[in-house]
Every structure is written in C-alpha cells, then in structure tokens.
Amino acid sequence: MRTGVLVAIAVAAAACGSSDTPTSVYLEIYDASVIPSPTQVSLDVFNGPGGNQIATLDRTAAAQTSPASPLGSVVILVGTSASSGTLHIEARRSSGGAMTSSGSVDVPLIANRQVSAQLMLGHAGQPSDAGAGGAGGSGNAGASGTGAGGSGGSATPPADAAPPVDSGSTLAPTGTDCRAGSACASGFCVDSVCCDSACDSLCHGCNLSGSRGACKSFAAGSQCVPPSCTSTGDDLVPARTCDANGNCNAAGAAQSCGRYRCQSDACLRSCSSTNACVSPFRCFQNRCQ
Q1: Mean pLDDT in runs of 10 for the chain (289 residues)?
Q2: 163 and 207 in one domain?
Q3: Cis bond before residue 163 (omega within 30° of 0)
Q4: Which of 8, 14, 106, 286 is in the most buried spot, having the most CB atoms within 10 Å?
Q5: Is 5 a member of any domain?
C-alpha cells in the first residue's frame, strides 16, 4: 500500500445516543512520518466528495514519539438538521512552512449521532490508493460509508444543514494531567503534566506547587540524584543536591560503610549473614565483628 492513503475509517453510532445528540464527526489524525516537534495541521471540509468547501480548521499538532501516536483529534459539529450525507475532509501537515504530508477521508454522517473516523497522512505529492468502504452505523440509523476512492450510498448533506463548526482541539493545555506528549498541545508531558518545554534538566520540574505546566527549578538543597553504592559494594556515594541556581551539585566523595557493606543504596547497620560484612569481618549476633 502506498503512502498518502486512508488506512482506517471506523463509522459507528454513539452508544445510547438520543435525538438531542448533535450530528458530528470525531476525527483522529495520524502520520507515519515521525516529526519530534509540534507541527501545523490544516483541515478543509467539503459538502460531500466533489462538493463545495464549507469550513477550514487549523490546529497545532503535538510532537510525535512513534507512528502509532496520534497527531491529535478534533470534533466537527455538523448540525442537528442533517439527516444523512457525507463530509469530505482533506488534511495537510506542515513543518517550518513546508508541507510534509497530506491525505483525505470521506465520512458518512448519521443524524443525531457522533461518528468516528481515522485519517493517516502520507508523503506530500504521492497518490492515494482506493480504500474499502467504511463500516455502516449501528442501531436504527444505518449508513453506507466510503473510504478514500471507495463507493457508498450516502447523499450529500441537505441544504438546510448547519455548516461544520470546530468544537476545539482535544490536545490538552499546559498544566493538565497527561501520560504522553502526544496528548499535550505543547508536545511535552513531564512529571505527568503537560509542560511548556522538555524540562529535562536536573533540578527542574513541571509540577511544582503554584506553577504546574511551567518548567521551574527546585529549591536549593533539594535532592537531584539519589545516593548509591559503589561497584564493590563497600562504600556509599552520597546523594547530590540542587544549588540556588537550579544546578545539580557535583557528586561528593564515596563514604566508607565501615565493617558493613552498602546495599540498596544505604550502609547496613546490622547483619543476618556474613554477606553483609566487609572482609575479614564476620556476622555474629547481628553484628559484623
């Protein structure tokens, strides 16, 4: 399969939807080309394949960590007066003002339901393969779908349908809880919070009290590197702390644990076997002697 092609489209009625549910499309956008910095994605929405353009949406996409991570998602509200039809959506991704990839998808609508679709962008300038027809909606509101170049039985949206409206990007703002940078508008998830930068220096964090989402330095004396045992297990390397300028102080000299060995990043203070003692000492009555 060549790039620049729709790789997946799933169309389904929202579970337990009511007549009050707005006709809408939940679109997830992916790109096989990983760009590890935020990029721009533009969407053009058309009144069915070959129809007139009725909306343009622009979004900042998060930095990618892998082809499996989405660029982001957007909800397009169509209007409750639409009883059937199809939206044709074209997407373009750009970085530094140059277009890097593009793609399109035809999404069959279901009145008073939210349908879901996925769009994979491919290298700019390459043709799209014809895709298979999308899955029909479930429940009483069935619909025939079209993939890229596929065929289906949907009509264009009726003239009285409200034009699509962008309900807003689902990418989270800074200060919001997160699990991955792909969920954040900034592209950075640090300390489980959407952060304004990579914030990858020691003595800096993004979830400090009063400044969630902003990369700030720790207070002087805060631990930046935990203590550790030397490779021989005889000595303890003390913890490193932050200075007043947000720098991690240099490691101090290793400290002897005396007759005991260093285990689990700490000097032992008692023993249950001779393995806890430094040679030539032996463990007797829970003490290295």
Answers
A1: 27 37 81 84 86 82 77 74 70 88 89 84 53 31 30 37 48 86 86 92 93 94 95 93 95 94 95 94 95
A2: no
A3: no
A4: 106
A5: no
